[in-house]
Amino acid sequence: MSHQAVPLTSARGANWPHPPTDPFLAVVSHELRSPLASILNAVRFLSRQADETPTRQKIQILLERQALRMTQLVDDLLDVSRITNGRVQLHRERIDLRVVVNNAIETVAPDISARHHRLATESPDAPVWLYADPGRLEQVFVNLLGNAAKYTDTGGELSVWVHIRKDQAVIRVRDSGIGIAADALPHIFDLFKQADAGDPRSKSGLGVGLAVVRDLVELHGGSVMAASAGAGRGSEFTVRLPRED
Ligand code: ADP
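A: This is the predicted complex of the input protein with adenosine-5'-diphosphate.
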């Protein structure tokens, strides 16, 4: 399969560093977050009451799921706003990349199995040491793997490979999903950008996750690239991070 690779440097859009909406994002996100937390608390309180009817139960489940989803979106917006304003502090420590990747896989595992995907993994037998923030790196791989699961029809093939290349750790997240059209690839990491691979699912989110991925990887001194042989032919994301001995 001939992949078209887009180096990170050319993947930035004309608006780089970022659109001037960051203070707006921060305010909106904060204002949305507290009412959402109240809604979630209220729904959870109600679901503990004894007088459940099937209809009421259904409505509570729906309310909780939607409130959780909105909370996740608001958190993503807050995150991207913090990162782009340089307000994210990495808490770096010596970590084994394999552990971080496994934690990310565990986090996304329910989505992967709900969609009946198969997941292949490959990593070195020995620890892959990095000086990095484990939580933030996990977030990177959760976003990439979550997208792989989301943008692949049920019963797809996903893979996560960890390799060592000289002084770098290379992580590849691949899927057999809807793919990314060649003209969308250069913009895929831009904030609020969503590919249109001729498929409505390619616009199912906010377009924030990959911007967060790129910024977090860069904060770690690394790079990220997207590749796809085109619509319907799967996608591949490659992250490179500096390695410690
Ligand atoms: P979101 O998924 O919330 O829309 P992202 O920033 O994570 O935001 O992704 C941006 C866009 O890139 C998505 O809307 C989708 O069009 C495309 N995309 C991301 N990952 C994949 C993938 N694995 N396969 C196909 N398209 C993808």
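Residues 93-242 form a domain with the Heat Shock Protein 90 fold (CATH 3.30.565.10). The longest strand covers residues 157-165.
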